Amino acid sequence: MGYTNVPILLALLVVFVTPMVFADDNAPIPASKPGVEQWFKTHVAPLPQRKGLDPALVAAEAAPKTITVNPKGGEFKTLTDAIKSVPAGNTKRVIIKMAPGEYKEKVTIDRNKPFITLLGQPGANMPVITYDGTAAKYGTVDSASLIILSDYFMAVNIIVKNSAPAPDGKTKGAQALSMRISGNYAAFYNCKFYGFQDTICDDTGNHFFKDCYVEGTFDFIFGSGTSMYLGTQLHVVGDGIRVITAHAGKSAEEKSGYSFVHCKVTGTGSGIYLGRAWMSHPKVVYAYTEMTSVVNPSGWQENKQPANDKTVFYGEYKCSGAGSQTAKRVPFTQEIDANEANRFLTLGYIQGSKWLLPPPAL
User: Active site residue: 202, 203, 211, 219, which one?
Assistant: First the structure.
């Protein structure tokens, strides 16, 4: 056999030793933290090993384009200009590599620019997107420093802040969002979000947050998204009554909801509530989550409208820590078993087998 056939044999060998797999929408996240990473690697494998992904996503990932942005000078000096360079109707993955530094801009990614990735470096040099927009100036949902309206978005190693001051309870329109995610199929890896009231508007669509950090005071994760937060720290700051979630479910038929798995609730005092009924049918579940003593023993804020006692869905499953004791929980907290909990512990909850990919290699 001649040497000219060796590359062909090697290519065939790679094909045979790298099996294609379907992500299993029904495989629950394991109860043990050490098993989470293996679960992720198995069910959120890289694109070359995957079957069943959306054809548009597969096509977009075939030849990704990388551009760079650096406030000190480079291909683009602002993130806004980098995003403007992406054509309307974009069909290819565009990875925007962000150099370390502070990006003082109010950034919007329009609906006609899907397949964008913001990529920073992990550790102390993560890039920071920051702005001081408030509800008084822009309206609540448009006050965000980063607004994502497009589908198939990804952010990796990015910090997003709203630098407006904390609401004082007197000033009208003091709400100030860090981020609003209104696109479908968005993933966030090792990102940090800082704000006070209304930090993240988890607005609509299927979203996945892994190894993130979210800080706020009141309703700091709100909206009608269908989202899974895995291994994410929820840190509450400020004094007085503070509430983590205000999910905006409006009917029993609505499929949206927030699932917090292997997360950690931290903060100060003992006045933190896991959620409240902003709308009539919120759906929020905490599973395998560590809750420190900052969580109020009642767990969930009392409904202002008693009729909502029968329509809210607040679930806790095998959580730990001093704040996880359920003896004094409000009576409308759901007692969920393994079968019911599994709905919130699988990729199927966010249709993950169709679109969820791991972060790109640095």
Answer: 219
Which DSSP string corresponds to 68-90? EE-TTSSSBSSHHHHHHTSPTT-
Rounded to 5°, the CA angle 192-223-266 comes to: 40
Instruction: Specify whether the CB–CB gap between 52 and 42 falls below 8 A.
Output: no
Give the closest residue to 346 by CA, choosing from 241, 248, 243, 230.
230
CA nearest to 324, candidates 302, 292, 300: 292
* Domain spanning 19-355, CATH class: mainly beta
- The catalytically annotated residue of 198, 202, 203, 211 is 198
Q: Is 18 helix (H, G, I), strand (E, B) or coil?
A: coil
The SS3 assignment for 95 reads strand
Burial tier of 29 (Cβ tally within 10 Å: 0-12, 13-18, 19+)? buried
Report if pTM > 0.85.
yes
* Catalytic residue flag (residue 110): no
How do the domains of the chain map onto residue ranges? 19-355
- CA 129 – CA 116 distance, rounded (Å): 16
Question: What is the maximum alpha-carbon separation in the chain?
Answer: 83
Q: What is the DSSP letter of 267?
A: -
198 an active-site residue?
yes
CA neighbor of 308 nearest in space, from 331, 340, 324:
331
DSSP category for residue 252: T
d(CA 33, CA 45): 19
For 94-129, write each residue's pLDDT tens digit. 999 999 999 999 999 999 999 999 999 999 999 999
What whole-number distance in Å separates Cα of residue 109 and Cα of residue 112? 8
